Amino acid sequence: MGTRINSFEEYLQEYKRSVDDPESFWGRQAESYTWTKKWDRVLGWDFVKPDVKWFSGGKLNITENCLDRHLSARASQQALIWEPNNPAEKGRSLTYRELYEEVCRFANVLRNNGAKKGDRICIYMPMVPELAIAVLACARIGAIHSVVFAGFASGSLSSRIDDAQCSMVITADGGYRGAKEIALKAIVDDALAKCVSVKRVIVYKRTGSPVQMAEGRDTWWHDEAAKADTRNTAEVMDAEDMLFILYTSGSTGKPKGVVHTCGGYMVYADYTFRNVFQYNEGDVFWCTADVGWVTGHSYLVYGPLLAGATTLMFEGIPTWPDAGRFWQVIDKYKVNIFYTAPTAIRSLEAMGPDFVKPYRLDSLRVLGTVGEPINEEAWQWYHENIGKGKCPIVDTWWQTETGGIMISPLAGITPLKPGFATLPLPGVQPALLDENGKELEGNGVEGRLCMKFPWPGIIRTTYGDHERCRAAYFDTYKGYYFTGDGCRRDEDGYYRITGRVDDVIKVSGHLLGTAEIENALNQHADIVESAVVGFPHPIKGSGIYAFVILEHERKDEEALKKEALETVNKIMGPFARPDKIQVVRGLPKTRSGKIMRRILRKIAGGDASNLGDTSTLLDPAVVEDIKAEAQ
Ligand code: WT7
Questions:
Q1: Is the CB of 541 under 6 A from ligand 1?
Q2: Does the pLDDT of residue 217 top 90, yes or no?
Q3: Of 511, 542, 575, best ligand 1 pocket probe by most atoms within 8 Å of the beta carbon
Q4: What's 514's DSSP letter?
Q5: Is the CB of 343 under 6 A from ligand 1?
Q6: pLDDT digits (tens, 9 = 90+) for 473-517
Q7: C-alpha count within 13 angstroms, C-beta hemisphere, residue 148
Q8: Is residue 191 part of a domain?
């Protein structure tokens, strides 16, 4: 197993080494894995094209490192613990040997169904162990997985399947989330009406609710598994072969298929997992994120398994049957490291302390947060009520595109400051740039967060459209990777993320493109144009505020709003539904036709008293109308 930093002094030394000689630093980290063939060159890079290659010439399979490599020392250790949605249902767990066998078996199922190296396979599943098994089985045969969060509706699902030209979909009859049952297979059927690339659908039976099975296309997981062997030889992959695609929202309406590759992602997911959380042998690690997001990829599946940890997967939601569910699960499995989102903390804090009290949380050693800035009040509540004042909180900043954690404390090692992601991990070289692209030196500065040197987990391309990757991340500031975040480096050199500076918003930790929501709203027959902005929301971080222009006046505006919500729900999914919809006569546009979102953001945030410079507006009266009716 790889090494772990043990003191702040060591962190400083390791950081320095990683900057002075990145190749020998990462080369040393990569030594501890099973490689079929060692790499020829640690790093080759060019941030203009962009073209980044880690461990070129190296051959490996990541699942051999997640599973086979552990069989000699930890075959009977629990690899995955699963807690169902309903506490009355029995949980499950798989040892490293069992998980290895199930992954091999399902890898054979995939091959028996015609899948091969390089194929794209969409996984649209509830949070059951078979979701992790499907992910790993794809990686085992060299198929590129594209997991789509099972909260997405059919419109988002079909566009993702189509963009990657997936040949197969792995799904379930349905899934449970709190008191709700979601008919996943029916959503897949709907999505596939528009996707011709899909030849096979494998359906895991979770709820037992009736589904339609398309003859010649659909087949049951259990029928296929019964025919398959548990021995499977892993496909030999090049370090730079694609491992997975994961879609993320961007400034335009179309999501981007972020591509990660085998070697660098593996080294980075594992290195960051062990060091940030200060993982100890035998720890039970619980990341509450869904595998449909990058956090679930890196810190529920790959990172913990690479490290030989016990990873916990929870099918349900934090507030069902009541707001004590998370704390009950921690108590039940004696969780040592707990990793969740600020939005969950804020919503549970709002429920009051009584839901925490019944449970023993003294197994906890480390707490973590991810996905959005954590406000000081939520930080303190988490620290006192959950960590009982003795667990460090790692506020981990990273992105789908970075593959793993980039700026974060090392638990128990880095001195903490609430609201700060603190310091860059070894190998991470942040830079703050001003609006003119000038790098801000020294401390006590605020600017746009960029990276000036590659790390092994960096995005390689956006699937099928390399130009988009270049334009989105490498074009704004020449020679830098641009994150899209604003950031402050304080007097101590500590980093504080201030939020997005582009047209995406963070709603309950989910990244949503405002253009994507606008496109969905515009599908409503009566809506001709819309503009969506975020506004500060006490629980969700950002709420969604939609301004819509109607084709003709509607007397029943409330009914119209309900229909508009349902339209977004059907196309994108429930989490993209606006919190507020305001019908307007016009939008504040410049003479060249550009919507002045800055003005809308101010109005949505309830701060319309000072709108700044409005001299370029085509029709200033529009703004007065909007202000008068703002919610
Ligand atoms: C964006 C990336 C990282 C995995 C989950 C989200 C925001 C993320 C933090 C943090 C403040 C954060 C940024 C970033 N973000 N972590 N600790 N503090 N902001 O991945 O959906 O790709 O979103 O999430 O704005 O750019 P993602």
A1: no
A2: yes
A3: 511
A4: H
A5: no
A6: 999 999 999 999 999 999 999 999 999 999 999 999 999 999 999
A7: 34
A8: yes
Ligand 1: residue whose CA is nearest its atom 20: 399
* Tokens matching residue 561: 């709003």
- Residue 216 in any domain: the answer is yes
Whether the ω angle into residue 321 lies within 30 degrees of 0, i.e. cis, is yes
Q: Are 458 and 264 in contact (CB under 8 A)?
A: yes
Q: What is the pTM of this model?
A: 0.97
What are the tokens at 591? Answer: 């003479």
N-term to C-term CA, the chain? 56
Instruction: Determine, yes or no, domain membership for 613.
Output: yes
> Where a domain ends, among 183, 209, 235?
235
Q: What is the total residue count of the chain?
A: 631
Q: Is residue 159 included in any domain, yes or no? A: yes
CATH of the domain at 160: 3.40.50.980
Lowest mean pLDDT: which of 99-103, 118-122, 185-189, 594-598?
594-598
Q: Are 292 and 172 in contact (CB under 8 A)?
A: no
Domain closes at, from 195, 220, 235:
235
pLDDT of residue 599: 94
What letter does residue 407 receive in the DSSP assignment?
A: B
CB–CB of 349/378 below 8 Å?
yes
Q: Which atom from ligand 1 is nearest to the alpha carbon of 298?
A: 4
pLDDT recorded at residue 552: 93
Range of the domain at 122: 97-235
- pLDDT digit string, tens, across residues 139-159: 999 999 999 999 999 999 999
Question: Does ligand 1 have an atom closer than 6 angstroms to the CB of 249?
Answer: no
d(CA 587, CA 608): 15
**How many angstroms is it from 622 CA to the middle of ligand 1?**
35
- Report how far Cα 363 is from the mean position of its chain's Cα atoms: 27
Distance 569 CA to ligand 1 centre (A): 24
500 CB under 6 A from ligand 1? yes
B/e letters for 475-497, b = 16+ CB within 10 Å, e = fewer, are ebbeebbbbbbbbbbeeeebbbb
Q: How far is it, in rounded angstroms, from Cα 460 to Cα 242?
A: 9
User: How many domains are contained in the chain?
Assistant: 2
- In the prediction, which pLDDT does 114 show? 98
Query: What is the reported pLDDT for 253?
Result: 81
Q: Which residues pair with 496 in a beta bridge?
A: 488
| Any ligand 1 atom below 6 A from CB of 371 | yes
